[in-house]
Amino acid sequence: MNLDRKTLKGLPGAFSLGMGMIGLLLINFAIWFDTDFPGLLSPVEEIAGIFLAIVGLFMKVDKKVALAGLLVNIFLIIFVFLTLMLSWGINPKP
Amino acid sequence: MTKKDNKLHDVNFDSILNEAKQTSILNKGKRQARWRTIVITLLILLMITPVAFLSTLMYYSFGNKANDYRDVVISTFALTEPNVLIDPDKVDNVIHPFFSIDYKMDLLKTVGAERKWIGEYDTTFTINNLTKQDKRMITEKKPEIPLLENRMLFHPDAFMPYSREGWDQLEKLPEGTVSEVYFSLTDTYKPEEVKDLFNDFDIMLLWYAVDTGLDGQMKDPSGDNEGVYLPPIGYPAGMQSSPNDPFSKDESNEKQFLQELKFIQQHEELATDVARAKTLALEERIDYLDKNGIAVYGIVATGPSKELLKLRELEEIRGCRIGSIDFWNWNKESGSQ
C-alpha cells in the first residue's frame, strides 16, 4: 500500500491520539472492574504519546489530531500522578 | 464586485473538476467529518469515568473524609460491640467513580488465648451518607437490630431475665474448652476495682460495659427517640497491638474511651447507623461520664470454662451469659493480647 507524504506526516499525531485513547480505555476498565493492568500506572506510554504528539505538531499536517493526542496523554500522566498521591493519603497501611 | 471576485466568476469549475472528482472530494470530507465526530464522542465518553474517579478521590482525600469514616466505623465497633474488633490494618477500600467508597473490614473476637476471625463487615458511603452495610458473621447469628431481648450485659438497676442459666451451662461444659462469658455485676465499680476483683483468676478481661447514666432503663429518656432501646457502651480492656487501633498503648484505655466517644459524637448519625441502633444518645452519656467518671457494670471475659465457673463464688457478680465456646487454646504465650 502506498502512503502519500501527507498521510505519513499525519501518522505521529494519529498514533499519539490512538495511544491516549487506548490508555483511557484501559483506565475505564480498571475503574469499573476494579482490576489492574500491568504497566497501567507506568508513565512510559504516556511520555511516548507526548513525544509523538510533539513530532506531529511540527509536521504541520493534522495539527488538531496531534494536539488532541498531546492533551489526552498529559491528562493521563496527571491522572496517574494524582491517583497515586491521593490514594496514598486514603487508608495508608503500615 | 472586486477584481478578485470577477476573476473567480470567470473560472469554469466544471471544466477543472469533473463530477467524479467533486464527488470524491465531497465523500472524503464527509468521511473525515464522520471520523472526527466519532473520535470526539469517544474521547468525551472515555473521559467521564476518569474525571469522576479523580473528583471522588479528591473529595474523600481532602479533609481526611475517607479516613474519618473508616475510624468512625472502627471506633463504633470497639465501643458498642462487646469483644468484637475490627483489624485496622486489614481494612480494604475501593473508590468508585461518582462519589462512593466501599470498605471491607474483618471482624475479630477473642475466645481463650486466640483472636479469631468471625466475619466481615462491608459498608458503602456515598457523599456523606452510609448507603449500604452488610455484616456477615460466620460463628454466630447476631440479630440485625440490637434489642433488649438479645442484651448480654445488664446494669444493676435493670431487670435481668436470667440468673442461673449461664452458670448451669458453664458447669456442663467439658474441661478442655475455653469460653467467652458476659458477666453482669451487682454494682458499678471503678475499672481498677474490677481488675483487682478478677486478679486471682486465670482469665482474661476483654471488654468493660460502662455506666452512662441511661443503662438502668436501657432506653433513651428524652428527645425524639424517647423510649427507644439504647445499646451498651464500653471499651476494650486490653491493649491493642496495631498503631492504627483507636485504643493505642500510649494512654490508658479509660482516657481514650472518652476521647473516642467524643470523636464518634462528631459523626453521631453515622455511628448510630453503624451500631444499627436508632439512637446512641451520646450527648447525654458523655455529659454523665464527664460529671461522674467511668464506672463499670459488666465485663466480658475469656478463659478456661472451669476457671470462669469459679467466678460464681464472687458476690459481686449478678449473673452471666455465655457468648462463644472453643477448644482448648489457653496458652497465654501465644495469645494475641
Automatic annotation (TrEMBL), chain A:
Is Transmembrane included in the keywords of this UniProt record? yes
Q: What residue ranges are annotated as transmembrane?
A: 12-33, 39-58, 65-90
Question: What keywords is this UniProt entry annotated with?
Answer: Membrane, Transmembrane, Transmembrane helix
Q: What is this protein called?
A: Uncharacterized protein
TrEMBL record, chain B:
What Pfam families would the database entry show?
A: Sigma_reg_C (PF13791), Sigma_reg_N (PF13800)
Can you tell me where the transmembrane regions are? 38-60
Which InterPro entries would you find in this protein's record? Answer: Sigma_reg_C_dom, Sigma_reg_N
Residue span(s) of domain Sigma factor regulator N-terminal? 25-115
Which key words are in the record?
Membrane, Transmembrane, Transmembrane helix
Please report the stretch or stretches of sequence annotated as the Sigma factor regulator C-terminal domain. 170-323
Q: Which domain of life is it from?
A: Bacteria
> How is this protein named in the record?
Anti-sigma factor
